[in-house]
Amino acid sequence: MGFKPFLEGGIAAIIAGALTHPLDLIKVRMQLQGEHSVSLDQNPNPNLVLDHNLPVKPYRPVFALDSLIGSISLLPSSIHAPSSSTRSVMTPFAVGAHIVKTEGPAALFSGVSATVLRQMLYSATRMGIYDFFKRRWTDRLTGNFPLVTKITAGLIAGAVGSVVGNPADVAMVRMQADGSLPLNRRRNYKSVVDALERIVRQEGVSSLWRGSWLTVNRAMIVTASQLATYDQVKEILVAGGRGTPGGIGTHVAASFAAGIVAAVASNPIDVVKTRMMNADKENYGGPLDCAVKMVAEEGPMALYKGLVPTATRQGPFTMILFLTLEQVRGLLKDVKF
Fold first, then answer.
1. Residue 210, SS3?
2. Whole-angstrom Cα distance, residue 181 to residue 237?
3. According to its UniProt record, where is this protein mainly located (predicted)?
4. Which long-range contacts (CB under 8 A, 24 or more apart) does 57-66 make?
5. Fold of the domain built from segment(s) 4-332
6. H, E, C per residue of 134-188
7. What secondary structure does DSSP assign to 19-44, as a single string?
8. I need a labelling partner for 277 at 20 to 30 A (CA). Which of 34, 52, 236, 330 fits?
9. Strand, coil or helix: what is 63?
């Protein structure tokens, strides 16, 4: 396994991640809208209705699962989620405008250092491993790399990459979400290094892998759908005479399709991952507990919060990623290491 595919993938991912970071930040802010973990003593979000007088029906634990899933209990929430008629839904543009107005334009790049580190670790690993399996599993006589094999390679590559990049992912989510918190709850990390140091010191090393089960599953879904779709669509276009292997139009069409497929497939687990990573220890008993509470308090469509900015980001991100990757490969094709 050569080092070059990892370097090529890492360079392309860093450029794509940095350029589309504002869209990712807006996605995270939208995914955190309506989160139940706000105390009754403060109402930092005017879109949430706090009512101390409403009767609360006590619930017995529905599930009791340990380890990765954790214990689940539908306990009375401190916040009664308002109905759709009383809760306003902010569009991605409105969220972005609100961030610029209240926090300044630079806030759109909050956590960009963590994004760069995450792409160095996560994307470089997953793309390098996928390339390794692609070379190994492509039929040398026919050049055939079946779709099922592409998906398998993507699942494995995504799982390994997510484990490597999870600490940076936790730091990135925390830094992106900070501006949406009340002033007395903001962490005010100075950089990704400061974030990692403080998380370890205050919450322990294991907190760097908080939500890792979700991250692994999300990464497997994203990598399998993104890379497999890109290769598959590219092959279909070339085979049908509607594109050339090295044509920019082919790369743009294939990468845009890959981005949309990846966004739709991964959004539910991405929302839960964001909530878990941003939460304090006592908020959720595990990923399934988080999902159950979200659906109970905010409705099933809460799992698709941030889908528009996710799709809006995944399209450009994937296009920039693969267009840059093709250029980097061309520049390094004669370099041996």
1. coil
2. 46
3. mitochondrion
4. 62/292, 63/288, 63/289, 63/292, 65/286, 65/288
5. Mitochondrial carrier fold (1.50.40)
6. HHHHCCCCCCCCCHHHHHHHHHHHHHHHHHHHHHHHHHHHHHHHHHHCCHHHCCC
7. HTHHHHHHHHHHHTTT-S---TT---
8. 52
9. strand
Residue among 24, 33, 145 nearest 81 (CA)? 33
In the chain, DSSP finds a helix count (H) and a strand count (E) of 11, 2
Report, as an integer, the average pLDDT of 174-179.
85
Q: Which of 187, 169, 186 is nearest to 114 (CA)?
A: 169
Average pLDDT of the segment spanning 96-123: 92
Q: What secondary structure letter does DSSP report for 70?
A: -
State pTM to two decimals.
0.72
Backbone CA torsion sign across 236, 240, 245, 246: negative
Closest CA to 126 of 264, 8, 251, 289: 8
Give yes or no for a contact between 317 and 255, defined as CB atoms under 8 angstroms apart. Answer: no
Q: Are 244 and 307 in contact (CB under 8 A)?
A: no
Q: Give the DSSP per-residue string, 283-309.
A: T-SSHHHHHHHHHHHH-GGGGGTTHHH
Q: State the Cα–Cα distance between residues 313 and 310, nearest whole angstrom.
A: 5
